[in-house]
Specification:
- With about 120 residues, the protein is of the alpha/beta class.
- It is built from three helices and three strands, in the order E-H-E-H-E-H.
- The model has no long low-confidence stretch (mean pLDDT about 95).
- It comes from Stachybotrys elegans.
- This is Asl1-like glycosyl hydrolase catalytic domain-containing protein.
Length: about 120
């Protein structure tokens, strides 16, 4: 931060991709502890797991946890687009289908606060 001391950032913007929600939380907490004066914007986050239930669990865990943190200004899950971005991004984590409609995960992400498992 010494390089930007004369014009400090307003937010700490972070990206995170993983299969483990607890690791994601630890990463976000560590970054916040390193720069506690800055609110955090998680500008990209998603599970890269190929199993839908694992992706759903990660998304539910992280959305609900981030909603409770006063130091997280905003967050955005990746990704609302009709096709999978690349081989790194999990097809199970798509928030939009090939027709431009929300997937079940996308609909839940937009409409359910707090997020919960379907049927619960």
């Amino acid at each position: 931060m010494s390089l930007v001391a004369s014009d400090p950032p307003d937010y700490l913007c972070l990206h995170y991709y993983s299969t483990d929600g607890n690791e994601a939380i630890r990463y976000l907490e560590n970054m916040h502890q390193k720069w506690p004066a800055l609110k955090v914007m998680v500008t990209e986050i998603a599970s890269i797991h190929r199993n839908y239930n694992d992706v759903l669990g990660f998304t539910i865990q992280l959305c609900n946890w981030m909603d409770e943190q006063d130091w997280i200004f905003e967050y955005g899950f990746f990704d609302f687009q009709r096709v999978v971005a690349d081989g790194f991004v999990s097809p199970a984590a798509q928030l939009m289908d090939g027709n431009g409609n929300f997937t079940q995960l996308g609909w839940m992400y937009v409409n359910d606060q707090p997020m919960r498992w379907p049927g619960s």
